[in-house]
Amino acid sequence: EIVLTQSPATLSLSPGERATLSCRASQSVSSYLAWYQQKPGQAPRLLIYDASNRATGIPARFSGSGSGTDFTLTISSLEPEDFAVYYCQQRSNWPTITFGQGTRLEIK
Amino acid sequence: QVTLRESGPALVKPTQTLTLTCTFSGFSLSTSGMCVSWIRQPPGKALEWLALIDWDDDKYYSTSLKTRLTISKDTSKNQVVLTMTNMDPVDTATYYCARAAIFGGTHYFDYWGQGTLVTVSS
User: Fold this and answer.
1) Do B49 and A34 touch (CB under 8 A)?
2) Largest Cα–Cα distance in chain B?
3) Beta strand spans in chain B (E)
4) Element (H, E) at A20
5) Please, which residues bridge with residue B100 across strands?
6) How does strand B116-120 pair with strand B11-12?
7) How far apart are alpha carbons B68 and A98 in whole angstroms?
8) What is the sign, positive or negative, of the torsion defined by CA atoms of B66, A89, B110, A37?
9) Of the candidates A44, A95, A102, which has its C-beta nearest B112's C-beta?
10) Is the CB of residue A101 less than 8 Å from the CB of residue A89?
11) pLDDT tens digits, chain B, 122 residues: what are they?
12) Alpha-carbon gap, residue B16 to B20, rounded angstroms
């Protein structure tokens, strides 16, 4: 089973700052990686698919990059509504699906 | 408009079988490429994928839980049902159903239900 390791576990930043979240896979997942945002009491929301494509309605400040085993989610300038937990998810070895353990983005 | 809604018991006893129903609208599970999945999240913890059923009635399960899970669909009712046997307190979690649709060349979860909290306790 492919394991996804996210870092850091918690990231403390201020609105307006740039956020960089990392997701590392235990083996190559090609570009078959997604990022989700989850706010308290809500279901996750798809942000990025295929490593770098924004889902419908996702603001341009969110961007994804990477391939193989190392991936990054970047939020260029944090808005107050961006403070949440972010998960990466792979589906390289379809249909087995795994999620990372999450990165909590909190207000500093 | 795509919606999904989970339903089932809020409380189950240890060793009992859990049955959850996902009722969806706005898409058909008979459409090529469409899938519905179950994903759970223990309180304060990460997401865990459980099972998936596709438009062709193929079924896939988490390796660690496959002996306890059964997923099925009723296309005419727009429902997907998950059963999990031999429930244990560690199975306490919010259970989500989600649609998996093709983005690019693969499937990702683009619509989710609001989740249903299941507590396992005697």
Assistant:
1) no
2) 46
3) 3-7, 11-12, 18-25, 35-41, 48-54, 59-61, 69-74, 79-84, 93-103, 106-112, 116-120
4) strand A19-25
5) B35, B109
6) parallel
7) 18
8) positive
9) A44
10) no
11) 999 999 999 999 999 999 999 999 999 999 999 999 999 999 999 999 999 999 999 999 999 999 999 999 999 999 999 999 999 999 999 999 999 988 777 889 999 999 999 999 99
12) 13
Helix, strand and coil in chain A, % to nearest 5: 5, 50, 50
Q: How many residues does chain A have?
A: 108
Cis check: omega of the bond before A8, within 30 degrees of 0: yes
In one letter, which amino acid is A81? E
Please give, rounded to a whole number of angstroms, the shortest distance from the CA of A91 to a CA of chain B: 8
Pair type for strands A45-49 and A53-54:
antiparallel
Separation of alpha carbons B5 and A12, rounded Å: 34
Cβ contacts of A45 on chain B, cutoff 8 Å: 112
The DSSP call for residue B77 is G
Distances (CA, A) of B92 to A94, B63, B64, B88: 27, 19, 16, 8
For an interface test with B, the pick among A97, A99, A103, A104 (most B C-beta atoms closer than 10 Å) comes out as A97
